[in-house]
Design brief:
With 351 residues, this protein is mostly beta strands. It is built from two helices and 33 strands.
Amino acid sequence: MKTPIRLAALLLLSTLNSQLSTAFAQGSLTPPGAPAPTMKSLDEVYSKLDPRTPIASAPFTISAPGSYYLTTNLTVATGDAITIATNGVTLDLNGFTISSTAASATGTGILFTSGRSGVHIFNGFIIGGVTVSAGVYSGSGFSDGITYNGFSPVNVRVAGVLVSGCFSSGIDIASVDSTVVESCTVKTVGSYGITAGSVTRCAALECGISGITAKTASDCSGQSGSGHGIYASTANNCVGVSDAGIGLLADAANNCFGGSSSSHGVDASSANNCYGYSGQNRGVQADVATSCKGYCGGGSYGLYATWIANTCYGYSVSGTGLHAYIANSCFGQNGGGNAMLIDHPYNMPYP
């Protein structure tokens, strides 16, 4: 027999079960539709992190300031690949190559329009099909790697770019103070290899007229056929070699080597700790030479100092080993001419 208390408990449980069943009733289990994305794509996220403008085809003209980058190798059939027509541009080649399939070399890999400023180009390749044989340059692709038309650019930096196989110049951004080329290589160009205000840690090889032309060249190597291997106001720790021109020509040459088959090896107003070789002409030619060595394989001078030679050495196979107006602690040797010629009567001989 159920007691009143037990009946009351049963009634309460029944009421609670009814309320709970209503409170936790389930809706339809059928999805309302296909799942939709609720997060941003990787491209959307990346565009926020790297708001640069991609370049995926050529020819391409940069007409608005900003940052640009290559997304693939670029090839043009003729003419210019990329034209920079505004100031304030950063162009990341992103390790890709710009090339041309023009049958006769024409156009430019990267062209500055007149008077551009505030441009940085880096990290890539510009490749043409020009080759050289017996001093003659011919072939396909670009005429120039990086150059300009009109007024020269200012505040420009090119770094980590390799240019090869161009009919005219490799990297020519004018030898004004605010143009800089760093850690670049140019090979096989018919005219000028690298021209800039400051050129550092660069090499320009197989250049028709001049390897490197700069106000300041440091830690560089330049090779030319008919012109100068390196031509600079100041050259530091450089190597310049030429077949027919001067190996290294500078106002001030420090710790440099210059070699030439037929002209001067090193030609400088002030030469310090330099070595010059010439097959037929003066190994070292300087107004003032200090701690230098000059060698001539023919009948000219091993080392020729217009004014003063200090602690220098000169050797000539059949000419004069060392010539100076005043020589201090110097030594000259020869194989058939004069060992030393000293113009001033008061000179200090080699000890």
